Amino acid sequence: MSFVQLEQLSKSFGHSLASAVNDVNLHLEKGEILSLLGPSGCGKTTTLRMIAGFEQPTIGKITIGGQTMYSANVSIPPEKRGIGMVFQDYALFPHLNIEKNVMFGLNKWKVRERKKRVQEVLELVGLEDCAKRFPNELSGGQQQRIALARALAPRPHVVLMDEPFSNLDASLKEKMRHDVTNILRKANTTGVIVTHDQKDAFAVSDRVVVMKDGVIQQIAEPRQMYKCPRNCFVAQFVGKTNLLDGTMCADLKHVNTHIGKVCLPEREDTMIENVKVSIRPEGCLLADEGRYSGKVENVTYSGEYQELVVRLQESDSDEETMMIYAPMEQDVVIGSAVSFDIKPELVALVD
Ligand SMILES: Nc1ncnc2c1ncn2[C@@H]1O[C@H](COP(=O)(O)OP(=O)(O)OP(=O)(O)O)[C@@H](O)[C@H]1O
Ligand SMILES: [Mg+2]
């Protein structure tokens, strides 16, 4: 039995016909870190709040560590679920110093143990020197680590974090992704992290759950999800991609598209005739005598690579262009003719 189980979990608000969360089934192993990823309004926070017990499901079952937390006839209150929550704005108490903030959930502990535990979790998040400071005397990243320390202090079974990185600037965000995963791993805590940022989700979690309109679209390890997105929505939500309509060739290893024949990666055979393929831009490699050719219509520099828009034929339709990443050192001139090959590993059949 998995450590955390959500079974057929749904939630509708008021008289709204559409479900905010619709038939979600999810299993987490102990110590696993999972991200809920999806666009605004897809039901991430609602799912998290149902696990925490702040929101009542309309239907479904929640089990943690073998104990039913919610079902048709059981509803355990939030404070008895063994859950630590980190809110998007950290929600530290401004009038309490860091030590007292972290101590907040330990009021039933003996004084000596309480002090020891505060010291322990402050060391865990690397802020043992900040115990006497107040939240407004800390940077954003430090406040976030304190919020995490406070959530971890009572030794929860599960830590839930809602958009933990959204208030941080780009470089701090990268550091915090690393720090948060390290801290959760050291504490061997099971974690669910809500984010709308694919990079957050991929960097911090063992598995990613992509949601849309309250419905799970795919659950997979980051690498697998990137290489084999199940449908067009997932392909476009986790990174950029080229989506092409095509027909399956008789050998079941190639798809005929408007750019020509595209080779598929090794996979189980699909007998469907009309298909869609997703081709990642970095799977298209400029080559002197590549199989596909076109004209460079636009170049955008990202700092790490150049994003090219290559028009394949004399046509005005956007569908006739391909997005291709080229290394920064490569000279690419707008209007020039280029040719490229496609790596089958970055091609996927999608629904
Ligand atoms: N208390 C509420 N009453 C009514 N509708 C709600 C309530 N909370 C959420 N909703 C609706 O449920 C849907 C899912 O909301 P939720 O907050 O879970 O989305 P989210 O994925 O966390 O989005 P975001 O990325 O913007 O935080 C939305 O359509 C939202 O308007
Ligand atoms: Mg939300």
What does this structure look like?
The complex is composed of two ATP-binding proteins (OpuCA), two transmembrane proteins (OpuCB and OpuCD) and a solute-binding protein (OpuCC). Residues 4-238 form the ABC transporter domain. Pfam families: ABC_tran (PF00005), TOBE_2 (PF08402). The protein has 351 residues and is α+β, with helices and mostly antiparallel strands. The protein folds into two domains: 4-228, Rossmann fold (3-Layer(aba) Sandwich), CATH 3.40.50.300; 240-350, Nucleic acid-binding proteins (OB fold (Dihydrolipoamide Acetyltransferase, E2P)). Helix content is 22%, strand content 34%. The chain has helices at residues 44-52, 98-103, 111-124, 140-152, 170-186, 198-204, 222-227, 232-237; strands spanning 4-11, 21-28, 33-37, 59-64, 67-71, 74-75, 83-86, 158-162, 190-195, 207-212, 215-220, 242-248, 254-257, 260-263, 274-279, 284-286, 292-301, 305-311, 321-327, 337-342, 347-350. The chain has a six-stranded mixed beta sheet, sandwiched between helices. It has a five-stranded antiparallel beta sheet with strand order 2-1-4-5-6, covered by helices on one side. α3 crosses α4 (140-152). The structure holds adenosine-5'-triphosphate (ATP) and magnesium ion (MG). The site of magnesium ion has 2 residues, from α1.
CATH architecture assignment name of the largest domain: 3-Layer(aba) Sandwich
CATH fold-level topology of the largest domain:
Rossmann fold
> Into how many domains do the coordinates divide?
2
Pattern of helices and strands: EEEHEEEEHHHEHEHEEHHEEEEEEEEEE
Structural class: alpha+beta
The percent range for strand residues is 25-35%
Q: Largest sheet, described in full? A: 6 strands, mixed
Q: What is Rg? A: 24 Å
Helical residues, percent: 10-25%
- Ligand species: adenosine-5'-triphosphate, magnesium ion
Low-confidence region ranges: none
Mean pLDDT over all positions: 91
**Overall geometric form:** globular
- Strands of the largest sheet, in order across it? 7-8-9-3-10-11
**How many β strands by DSSP?**
21
